[in-house]
Amino acid sequence: MIHKLTVCAMFIALGVTLGYSLSSVPNIELVTATIFIAGYVTGWKCGAGIGFVTESIYAAVNPFGVASPPLFISMVLAMSITGISGGIYRRIGSSHTAVRHLQTGLAGAALSLNFAVMTTLGYLLFMGLPANRFLMSCITGIGFYLTHIAGNFIIFLIIVPILIETFETNGLLGFVSLQTGKK
Question: Is the per-residue pLDDT at 135 higher than 90?
Fold first, then answer.
């Protein structure tokens, strides 16, 4: 049990730290990749929890201010989905190198799009705007959305598969895997 908590705490600390380290760069971040890898390593249940706690800490103590309740909830749910996705990817992802790179790149883009949609809806709820303003909000934020999606596509295309392969080839997955509860 202590082993599980330690691994989860390390991923949470890493995610929050990476969030703060790149907070001055608009829409380029490593939190999503960290939570996805955490889900891959620990399984979808722990990945969901890691995503929830990591984003809760970051959204509550954000350098730009605390997120409004609807936005906070949408951010936390989106990152929980990211952790779940990492756990699912471990079960269904390809082991072929080129395919793995493409799959993770597309996963990063899709998870970023999911975050954009969920947080835009959270913003509309907070502002009391009707749902028909969703399209206008998306058009207004398209530059930010595309930067985030493209940035995570590249991070997930290049960095995530290398880290996953490093965990696998160095026997680290067996040591930190929480899916079976074994070391």
Answer: no
